[in-house]
Amino acid sequence: MxxxxxxxxxxxxxxxxxxxFLNIFGLAIxxxxxxxxxxxxxxxxxxxxxxxxxxxxxxARENQKYDTYVFTHQSTPGVMGPAIQAEIPGIAxxxxxxxGNSSLLYSxxxxxxxxxxxxxxxxxxxxxxxxxxDGDAASAFKQLHSVVITQKAAIKFFGTDKNVVGxxxxxxxxxxYTVTGxxxxxxxxxxxxFECVMPFQVFWDKSPWLKSxxxxxxxxxxxxxxxxxxxxxxxxLYGFIQKRELQNLGHVFLxxxxxxxxxxxxKDGIQTGGGQIEYVRLFTxxxxxxIFIACINFMNLVTARSEKRAREVGVRKVLGAGxxxxxxxxxGEALFMSFIAALLSIVLxxxxxxxxxxxxxxQLSIGFNNYNHILALLGxxxxxxxxxxxxxxxxxxxxxxxxxxxxxxIKDSGAAYIRKGLVVMQFTVSVVLIISTVIVYQxxxxxxxxxxxxxxxxxxxxxxxxxxxxxxxxxKQDLLNTGFIQNVALxxxxxxYGGNNTSGLIWDCKAPGSEVLxxxxxxxxxxxxxxxxxxxxxxxxxxxxxxxxxxATVITQSLQQLMGKGxxxxxxxxxxxxxxxxxxxxxxxxxxxxxxxxxxxPVMFFSASPVHTDRMYVKIKAQQPVEASxxxxxxxxKKDNPAYPFDYRFVDDQFNQMFLSEMLVGKxxxxxAALAIIISCLGxxxxxxxxxxxxxxxxxxRKVLGAxVSGIASLLSKDFLQLVIISCAIAFPLAYWGMQNWLKTxxxxxxxxxxxxxxAGFSAIIIAVVxxxxxxxxxALANPVRSLRSE
Length: 791
Description:
Layout: H1 2-15, H2 17-45, E1 57-65, E2 70-73, E3 76-77, H3 80-87, E4 91-98, E5 102-108, E6 111-120, H4 124-127, E7 132-135, H5 137-140, E8 146-150, H6 151-158, E9 168-171, E10 175-183, E11 196-199, H7 200-205, E12 216-224, H8 230-237, E13 250-256, H9 257-260, E14 266-267, E15 270-271, H10 276-304, H11 306-318, H12 323-360, H13 371-396, H14 401-405, H15 413-448, E16 459-463, H16 472-481, E17 485-491, E18 501-502, E19 505-507, E20 518-523, H17 527-531, E21 535-538, E22 552-556, H18 557-562, E23 572-575, E24 581-588, E25 603-607, E26 615-620, H19 626-640, E27 649-650, H20 651-657, H21 660-694, H22 696-704, H23 709-743, H24 754-781, H25 784-788
Parallel strand pairs: 6-11, 8-10, 20-25, 22-24
Antiparallel strand pairs: 1-2, 1-12, 1-13, 3-12, 4-12, 5-6, 5-9, 7-10, 8-11, 9-10, 14-15, 16-26, 16-27, 17-26, 18-20, 19-23, 21-24, 22-25, 23-24
Helix pairs in contact: 2-10, 2-12, 2-21, 10-13, 10-15, 10-21, 12-13, 15-21, 15-23, 15-24, 16-19, 21-24, 23-24
């Protein structure tokens, strides 16, 4: 029985090679696409999965209420960690750490290398899962100038990760640090990642501002004792800072590690349930949609060719086959083809995975050594086979044996309507994806072309290293003397990102109880011209404004508006509780920083001594080529700061980095839209071929009676084009509703234009016409004598 079934199946596949190829290849594309998406989804949902204490680890966050919004952040006072561990009984451990990583220079045997470095307390090794391959947690930070490195960093520094504990390495050409441990490389899908970690005490000793309850400058990680309810601890944390500093606006709460990556979205101080999880859900849905589109092809092609198998079904029923056995046979055929498609998809995945990894910026692998991956692929394959084969098996097994053996025509009206409905579904999804892709692209370009208020083009940022701050004046002059550079300036924060901010500022006519978050920047006087900020009123900062306490400030327009009607020049601003005030000497235009989609907070600029800044901005002249300019800058810094390698970033590259999530959505949308169209066209191609085959005699008669090739091609194409038009009518409102909701999540967004829908519909029609035309024209050009010879 089984042997006979296999013979029939193989005979059917070999007899209808084109039909089999369309089915298998369509399913293979669907399975490949879905499998790649599920690999990405698995990587996302398993973020921090390697952390043994994940369910008990938290980071302290603060809600600060201002006049128009609640600001949620994870910067905390440096003195808070030990205090909460001593006073709140439910806390098992606390780890204070620097905010993010610093790129420090490490030198071994005169080989300088940069590495991402984090400062953390010794408790980091007990709280986080950081396996040592050499050394141990107990002795890692016994001495102040020690460093624990990852395998990757060890190879970078020493060429090996073996026997490196005990070696000394110079950091920033200033201080030797002893390697006291080597950690196993940290997985990429881990929130807390670094190449080197140093004792927090080093960071504490060089950061005196950390010792104030009013200064939020570091991250505080918290481990709860087993069984402790985080809500209980939240109640104790709520007013913890205010007990030490009454005016402080920050109310602390716990944010669990399980939510760090996927649910990191807050609005007005409340967790929304959104974040990266929205992309995970979106692409999971798209994966299943593409699988369903591929399965639709199978259903359509099998039911369309039903007449070819009608006699086989009739004979089998006469010989005693029941409906159930026939259904199982057709389901078995679908499963078999699905397994062949799955094998082909493995080959396709191996071929496209490197490109997919580049697209999503990950290091995913098929990983068949992971039994979960094998089970998932098997499950996906079986699901495809069952979905694709379910309707055809019921339809084919229901044929009346008497009717088909008498040669009576099978009533195909019901199946035809289902086929048409499935084609409509396919193209509806395709058109929705086309529209979504265009709108996502438009939104990204809209924000990228936004007037930022400063000129990011050919603006280079260079971290200050060694004696660059001390030798700023000669370095600046040497850069200007190259002829490539328009201007040079220093700043204490990146222009495009958020920096230090405060709400504790007082000025005349400020409304009682008003709380406004104001950012602060310390810059050299050339900063405005270098960055392209326009001085609208008053004067620039100058070197005489540089004192231990700011005596002059330049503010942005939005802050001037908050200070009352008219010009802000001459008005004074001071910190709450401080008698020294700074006079407003100039006003510059507002500019966008931090959130590229939102309205930035006001900014105050103060004149800074070079030693109190940490980055240099270099503006290249518009007419000068970038490569030659970079070489000239490198030559100057190599001469004036020879102990440090040249390390730089362009601000427009930093700007593009802020759209990684949106750009990923845009790129993947284009890929998925293209795949959905390809799969839909494969099915349409097969249906067009079958329709032409069924109507071959009709076409022959029409040609004999004088019908033209174009007339016959139009006749065959008309029904399919009607289906595409219906698809567009359904897709347009669906796409509008979905994309309108997506755009509402951004403060600064485009308005959806009508021409996007027209272009998408026209594209779908053109694609369908091209797909159908090949078969239609082929049928119309066929010799009518051959088709009518049997009549």
